[in-house]
Amino acid sequence: MLCGIVLFIGGSFTLLFSSLFAGIFFLPYIWNGTSLQQKWRKFRVKMGGGPLGLKNRPGRKGPKHHSILDVDQYETMDAYTKSLQRSAKTNIKQCEKKHKKNSIVHVLKHENWTFTLSHMKVIYDHQARNETNVLKLILKTVGRSLAINLTIGCLLEYYCVDIESGNKELIAIQQPILKGNTYRAMWFYQKTKYSKCSIWFHSVKYAINHVLNDESLRYIDLGPSQNDQVKNLKSKFGFQHSKDWREMCDYSGDFRSLLD
Questions:
Q1: What span, in angstroms and rounded, lies between the C-alpha atoms of 109 and 258?
Q2: Closest CA to 71 of 233, 198, 183, 155
Q3: What is the pTM of this model?
């Protein structure tokens, strides 16, 4: 009896998440008219504050600590690199060479990018590192797929290219968001097979380069950290782990695209 109830509840949640995901997945294909695309964008903008952590009400648990870098303290990328310790400095300097060696290229997609099965495979593979329960893994994959679709922003995609055939495999994604004077790096996922290809280091360098060349931007926000290991990794690259990130970063104004 108890087993049946558990299976029923589990099946119901799976069906609910699947239905929600199916709706989000097909909306960009259905809403291909200009006015409908505008409505879809307005909906994503309305939902966007939640994933950023901007809708936490005072008195509730949070806000979580975020990892913040004030880019104004560096005039150039070289100045930033010189401020790092040896290992982090090497990671930033060598990431492009490592990508060239492994035939990895990156592409920045406009905020109207379309979610595909390839994106879901990347998220699934990323989540599978720390989750052995298949049902939980599927639910987490669906949940994170919903979140990245509902978040307004461009998409930085990384591909591994087969030099001989020209075929390419999507191996990592990261969603940069511009709001106020802040570059928020959201939703980084990569396939485990390519976890040592310096993709995350490249995404950090990409963010710093962008902020250095945009006078309206000052801060990079890498968001909260899942554990101390991730928090310490961000610290090695100059990011301050702060509870007062809302006071540091200006998140006012409209969401902007990196391609504007």
A1: 9
A2: 183
A3: 0.84
